[in-house]
Structures are given as structure tokens and as C-alpha cells.
Design brief:
With 229 residues, this protein is α+β, with helices and mostly antiparallel strands. It has one domain (29-193): Galactose-binding domain-like (Jelly Rolls). Helices cover 20% and strands 38% of the residues. The strands form three sheets. A six-stranded mixed sheet has the order 4-5-12-7-10-13, with no helix packed on it. Strands 3-6-11-8-9 form a five-stranded antiparallel sheet, with no helix packed on it. A two-stranded antiparallel sheet has the order 1-2. The chain starts with a helix and ends in a 6-residue tail after the last helix.
Length: 229
């Protein structure tokens, strides 16, 4: 085998894990630009940043892409704060969703919430990383309410009444309807994995039945020719 062929094969082998991850990540994905590959200026498309303390110098937010094209967003709390990159996600009522992402922490305080993914405006959080930790995948499961049609997902450093300092990086954020949580799974919110999904409001089921009956009546009365004797 020639030297150039060996280099080509080595490059292909090196790319296979990334291709596999990208393929898995794309399946059933509800997050827009969850790998932070797209954007303009200093912000990735589909995301915005926010913080409890809004002093710009205290909370630098940044975004960068690697040579592979995968992007990373960064939060650096120079003073105690609750900061995050957030996005609204369309969801279906009374449905289980798995929220996950890859997170890295650097010099994050150990006394308060660290770096994690979250459903904003709730206490639905994944495992949080504190101190200095390498890239790790974190995850939580959440079941939407009967009339809930959107979730606000956040990549966060610090939390409500748990302001923290340090640096956090995030990538490959994913939200997908993935059935029910495995038995014994941690960070499960909104219901029990053993609870059936047939808990949608009965009045919605009643309306669906009435609509179906009305359509059947219209078809019978006006569209289906009557039999002549």
C-alpha cells in the first residue's frame, strides 16, 4: 500500500467516529443548530444568551467552530451569576423527551450549581460539573404537561439562588422524543417512567370523537348519494 493510500485510510478511520456521532445526533433532533455549526458574528444561529446579572464585562459569552465544523459555546462567569445559552424547542403535550449535551468545566465553584443543561424556568436539571472536568455527556428526562407545546432549553452555569463563577463549554445539545426513561434513570422530571402516556385530557379525546362524528355525518348527508328505490 502506498504512503498516500495509508494517509487516506488513516484519515477515513479518524473521521468514522465523528460521522457516527453526527448521524446519531441528527436522528429525531428537535434542537436547531445543536452542534453550533452555523452562525454569524459572535453568536450561533438559533441561540441567545442571558444572565441574571447583566453586566457585560462580568459574563463574556462566546462561540467558536473547530476545524471539523463542530461548534462550542462558552460561558465565563467572572463574578457569581446564573448565565446561559437558551433556545425555545417545539414539543408535543404529554410526551417524554430526553435532553442531553456535552459539557466541560474549568475552575467552576464547588459550593453552588455548576455547568449543566436545563429546562429553563424550572428546577429540571441534568448532572452539573464543578471544579475542572473534561468533556462529559449529561442528560435529563422530562415529560411535558398536557397542554405544553414548547420547552426553553438552557446551557447553564450557576442557577436560581445558586450563583457561581468559572468557565463552562457546551456542544452537541439534543432534545428528542425517545420513549420512556429507563427504569432507575436519574434526573427524571414531570412523571414516572411507569406512568402510561394515556393521561391526555379526556375533554381533548371527547372533542376528537365529536369532530370525527361530525365529519361522518357531513359525508353521509351531503356527499354520499342516497340509494333510490
Amino acid at each position: 500500500m502506498s504512503r498516500s493510500a495509508r494517509f487516506a485510510l488513516a484519515g477515513l478511520v479518524a473521521l468514522l467516529p465523528l460521522v457516527a456521532v453526527s448521524w446519531t445526533f441528527a436522528a429525531g433532533q428537535l434542537v436547531s443548530n445543536g452542534a453550533f455549526t452555523e452562525g454569524e458574528g459572535e453568536e450561533p444561529s438559533g441561540w441567545r444568551h442571558e444572565a441574571w446579572a447583566k453586566t457585560p464585562s462580568a459574563n463574556p459569552f462566546s462561540w467558536a467552530r473547530s476545524a471539523s465544523g463542530i461548534g462550542v459555546v462558552t460561558i465565563e462567569n467572572k463574578s457569581p451569576n446564573d448565565s446561559g445559552w437558551v433556545q425555545n424547542i417545539p414539543v408535543t403535550p404529554s410526551t417524554w423527551y430526553r435532553v442531553s449535551g456535552w459539557v466541560r468545566a474549568e475552575n467552576v465553584g464547588s459550593e453552588h450549581l455548576g455547568a449543566y443543561v436545563s429546562v429553563m424556568d424550572t428546577f429540571f436539571n441534568s448532572q452539573d460539573l464543578r471544579g475542572t472536568e473534561p468533556w462529559q455527556q449529561v442528560m435529563l428526562w422530562v415529560k411535558t404537561k398536557p397542554l405544553e407545546t414548547s420547552l426553553r432549553i438552557g446551557c447553564r452555569l450557576g442557577g436560581y439562588s445558586s450563583l457561581n463563577t468559572g468557565k463552562a463549554e457546551f456542544t452537541m445539545i439534543s432534545v428528542e422524543a425517545a420513549g420512556t426513561p429507563p427504569t432507575g434513570a436519574p434526573f427524571v422530571y414531570g412523571g414516572s417512567p411507569d406512568q402510561p402516556d394515556a393521561d391526555k385530557p379526556r375533554w381533548l379525546q371527547g372533542i376528537a370523537i365529536l369532530v370525527a362524528l361530525a365529519i361522518a355525518f357531513v359525508l353521509w348527508r351531503y356527499l354520499i348519494p342516497t340509494r333510490r328505490h
